[in-house]
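Entry type: protein chain
Record version: 2
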Amino acid sequence: MLVRDAMTSHVITISMDATLGDVQQVFEAAAFHHLVVTENGEAVGVLSDRDLLQNLSPFIGKMSEQTRDIARLQRKVHQVMSRHLRTVTPDTTLAEAGDLMIRERIGCLPVIGDGGRVEGILTIRDLARVTVDILKDSGLGEAA
């Protein structure tokens, strides 16, 4: 199987100059856990919901919230994104992509097509879904 068979085609991208407040709104509105960060249409990084949580104050929205807590929402994406970008193409095999994710300890891979355009994203969840489908189809997923 190829990455194109399992990837999520609907990818949300965000600019390097967007704020963490912008990111928070995207994550609250969508069921995504990763955003591909782009500059001039090319993928330059990834920002996960975990990255966001690590960079926000736990006091936001609470009675103890202070100005400095709200100011953290104004931090730019490029200040907290993962820059060590690993990518795959739609024609990469799922085995290669899965091996890369395990070896590099990463939760997603932007899928880059012709001309450097982001065509999708492959996540650990996508791989798990394919694995479960294969197990069901093979009969190996049956209870003993």
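Comment: The helical segments are 20-29, 49-54, 67-71, 94-104, 124-138.
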